[in-house]
Structures are given as structure tokens and as C-alpha cells.
Amino acid sequence: MARTKSVSKSTKESVNKEIESQVEEKSIGLLDEPSEPIVPNKIFHDGDYIMCRSIIAGGLNISCRSSNFYRFVEYGGKCEIEYRDLVELIRIHSDHIFLPRIIIEDEDFLEQFPQVKQFYNSLYTTEDLRIILGLQNDKMEFEIKKLPQEMYETLRGLASEMISSGEIDSVNKIRCLSKIFDADFNLVSEMFDS
Questions:
Q1: 50 φ, ψ to 5°?
Q2: What is the rounded distance in angstroms from the CA atom of residue 42 to the CA atom of residue 156?
Q3: 102 and 60 within one domain
Q4: pTM higher than the cut 0.70
Q5: Whose CA is closest to 66, among 39, 91, 85?
Q6: Same-domain pairing of 102 and 136
Q7: Residue 83 is assigned to a structural domain of this protein
């Protein structure tokens, strides 16, 4: 036979009061501590559009399996790409995303794809490339050889742009760049000099 111990009414009341006071202390302590506001992650749906920017010289057209077609008119041009198409481009490791040809500008979207955000953090900025082109020829050639292969076309386009605008006007530098990129930048400089 099981034994039960009887508890007096006053003991029950004192235990309840003690528990209530502990709960009040903890809840007051929680309210006193400054807390960061909880911001829910943005939820995207297939039909949502994400702003992207082209980072290649000239126009860019992107077609997706969904039959959607996206056109970037020029370098720096912006276009909204449908969420499902952008996810598809990431999942197939498209050159549009990982070469890259476009930059996704929506931070909430990038939070959902940390591999893209990490990739973006490893990229060179235009200012970084301009600094490389401003180095002495031997140092410039050394730094260009260290760059990832994907950056060659971008740097080549920037070099051509800087030569045509007159930012790079040294004949020796133009010859050096022509040799590095296996291109004839002398024609570009002559075309804009006349």
C-alpha cells in the first residue's frame, strides 16, 4: 500500500508564494536587460523580384528555363530577376552569378545563400583593379598574374576603358598591357588620339 504524506495548507501557500516571487524576479530581470529587436528574415516567393546589377562592359541577356528573359543594357545597368530564376542560377553555379556577370543587390536574399555572399566578399572592387593598373609595369604584371582567371576579362575591359579615356597614356604601360592581355591596346589609344 502506498503512503501519502499530507501537506498542510500553510506549507502549500508558502511554497506557492516562493515560486511566484522567483518567477517575478526572473521576469523583471528579463525586462531590464536591453535586447536587440527580433527582425524576422524576409520570406521570398517564386514570383518576387530581386534587384541585380550588371558588372560587365556592354549589354547582357540572361534567359532561364522558366522562359523568362532578362536584359541588362550596359555596365552598371539594373534589372529585377524573378526569385525562382535567381535560385536556379545559383544552384547550377551559373557564370552569371559566379564569374560574376551580375551582382545581387538584395541583402535579405544574400542571407539565404551564404555561399554567394562569401564569394562576393572575396571579389576585387573596381578601385582595387585601378590600383593594380596604376602600379609600375613589372609590379602590375606580377599582380595581374596572381589574379583569378575570371578577373582577366574584367581587368582587360577596365584597361581598355582607361586607355580610351586617357587615364592611362604611358606608351610603355599600354605596350605592357597589350602583352599581358594579348591584345593591341595601341590601336585603342591611337583611335582616340586622332
A1: -115, 130
A2: 38
A3: yes
A4: no
A5: 85
A6: no
A7: yes
